[in-house]
Design goal:
By secondary structure, the chain is of the alpha/beta class. Helix content is about 45%, strand content about 20%. The protein folds into two domains: about 5-230 and about 445-455, 3-Layer(aba) Sandwich (Rossmann fold), CATH 3.40.50.2000; about 235-440, Glycogen Phosphorylase B (Rossmann fold). Helix 3 (about 75-90) crosses helix 4 (about 105-120). The longest helix is centred in the C-terminal third of the chain and has 21 residues, at about 310-330. It is globular and about 65 Å long. Bound molecules: adenosine-5'-diphosphate-glucose (ADQ). It catalyses: D-glucose 6-phosphate + UDP-alpha-D-glucose = alpha,alpha-trehalose 6-phosphate + UDP + H(+). This is Trehalose-6-phosphate synthase. It is an enzyme of class 2 (transferase).
Length: about 475
């Protein structure tokens, strides 16, 4: 079996792969350890041109090589902050109103992809398979092919693939889709995303899609598939239980003074529906006076991409909403919304999830949403909390034991909170069992192994 080469915008550090970071880093590292190989991408540092061009920096950890490069300020601004996060991210999350398009940023995006591909070429061996992750690297296979690389190359899109009418707002949309067709296998989070891509191919690229998801377009042959990313539920359950009587949990419990707890955890991002969520919680306090003083929403939302303007605006808006709602409903000993802009260690988050009665996860659009899955896995099966989940999270297709809500309907979300807060134990247990069975059936290992199995089975040279 050939080695595995993983390419992602950011590369986890060797320490993060030992469990301190998200499960994804651990999951991908597991596959790298099994096959041996290289994890290649940006180090996260902005560096001088000399340092950038001297890279990659190589660190070995057993059979796995971590190879990272720094980005120059210009590359960072155009490729990362610009086209990736100010054009692709909003459009792929249906927020065309927040997107901008600048030709020089797009040129920078393609330039960095070509440069990264060139750097990787030197580390490749003929039998390697290459697994590229996410929207920062759409032109990566095309750039590798231009370098003469004929290895199998797969791509997994972690975020939604939007309907054609939405992606049309990016002027070079056809070039992007053409670039995607240079991969041998394209993986999507949900059937909706896969169908949106097929729709583009058949109706706008004069291509064909066969019944077994083989695509022919732009003179290339490729395959597409749905690979729902998951978690390792039993590890999370064990971690949540192990830390449930630690000081941070006891402190929280004491401060709640018997109140019910609703937990939300997200990166601070406009796609996560935080403003709508705060307003739904306000509706609960407005319409159900018996809950005033008796339920607290803890929203943990560490800032990300804070040098992109739209992220500064959402942060200000949220601070305003939290302040307004708290001003309206706080008492001398009661604050309805506790809004925290910090990162927490994973084990802490999992034990806080276990302590709460509701997980409130309401993105406006989300590829999958691992927080929803982590929330379910962290519950005590004897006395589980209820997941209130947006229909626009990829996870909604699997977690049928949740209360599904439309995040644009504040009163609907409020009603789901009311239902969850007074749900009988038997029903909570039944819903939890349904959700846990779904998590176990399709865990992170299944996601990873099925993608890699399908990529390895593509005949070499089939795409040409
Ligand atoms: P994200 O948009 O980052 O991921 P999500 O899937 O929820 O969203 O993953 C977030 C991860 O970060 C979770 O593991 C969570 O526990 C962790 N996290 C969040 N807030 C944290 C905090 N305050 N402190 C510490 N950890 C925190 C993208 C896509 C998703 C897709 C994933 C994986 O947007 O749709 O599910 O990739 O494919």
């Amino acid at each position: 079996m050939g080695r595995l080469i993983v390419v992602s915008n950011r590369v986890a550090t060797p320490t993060e792969t030992k469990g301190s970071a998200g499960g994804l880093a651990v999951g991908v590292f597991g596959a790298l350890k099994d096959a041996g190989g290289v994890w290649f991408g940006w180090s996260g540092d902005v560096v001088s041109e000399t340092v950038a061009h001297a890279g990659p920096t190589i660190v070995h950890e057993g059979r796995v090589t971590f190879a990272t490069v720094g980005l120059t300020r210009k590359d960072y601004d155009q490729y990362y902050r610009g086209f990736s996060n100010a054009t692709l991210w909003p459009v792929f999350h249906y927020r065309n109103d927040l997107a901008r398009y600048e030709r020089d940023e797009y040129a920078g995006y393609r330039r960095v992809n070509a440069w990264l591909a060139h750097k990787l070429t030197r580390l490749l061996e003929p039998d390697d398979i290459i697994w590229v992750h996410d929207y920062h690297l759409i032109p990566f296979a095309e750039a590798l092919r231009a370098e003469g690389v004929t290895n199998r190359i797969g791509f997994f899109l972690h975020i939604p693939f939007p309907a054609p009418q939405i992606i049309f707002s990016i002027p070079p949309h056809e070039e992007l889709v053409k670039s995607l067709c240079c991969f041998d296998l394209l993986g999507f989070q949900t059937t909706t995303d896969q169908l949106a891509f097929h729709d583009y191919i058949t109706r706008h690229a004069r291509g064909t899609v066969s019944a077994d998801d083989r695509v022919e377009a732009f003179g290339r042959h490729l395959r597409t598939g749905v690979y729902r990313i998951g978690v390792f539920p039993d590890e999370i359950a064990e971690q949540a239980q192990r830390y449930e009587s630690r000081q941070h949990v006891l402190d929280l419990k004491q401060s709640l003074e018997g109140r019910k707890l609703i937990m939300s955890v997200d990166r601070l991002d406009y796609s996560k529906g935080l403003v709508e969520r705060f307003r739904a919680f306000e509706q609960l306090l407005e319409r159900s006076p018996e809950w005033r003083g008796n339920v607290t929403l803890v929203q943990i939302a560490p800032p990300t991409r804070s040098d992109v303007e739209t992220y500064q605006l959402i942060r200000q808006e949220l601070e305003g909403e939290a302040g307004r709602i708290n001003g309206r409903y706080s008492g001398l000993d009661y604050t309805p919304i506790r809004y925290l802009n910090q990162r927490y260690d994973r084990w802490k988050l999992m034990s806080l999830f276990r302590e709460s009665q509701i997980g409130f996860v309401t993105p406006l659009h989300d590829g999958m949403n691992l927080v929803a899955k982590e929330y379910v896995a962290a519950q005590n099966p004897d006395d589980p909390g209820v997941l209130v989940l947006s229909i626009f999270a990829g996870a909604a297709a699997e977690l049928s034991g949740s209360l599904l809500v439309n995040p644009h309907d504040a009163i609907g979300m409020c009603e789901a909170l009311q239902q969850a807060l007074s749900m009988p134990l038997k029903e909570r247990q039944r819903r939890h069992q349904v959700n846990m069975a779904a998590l176990r059936k399709n865990d992170l290992g299944v996601w990873r192994d099925s993608f890699l199995r399908d990529l390895r089975s593509v005949p070499v040279g089939e795409g040409h």
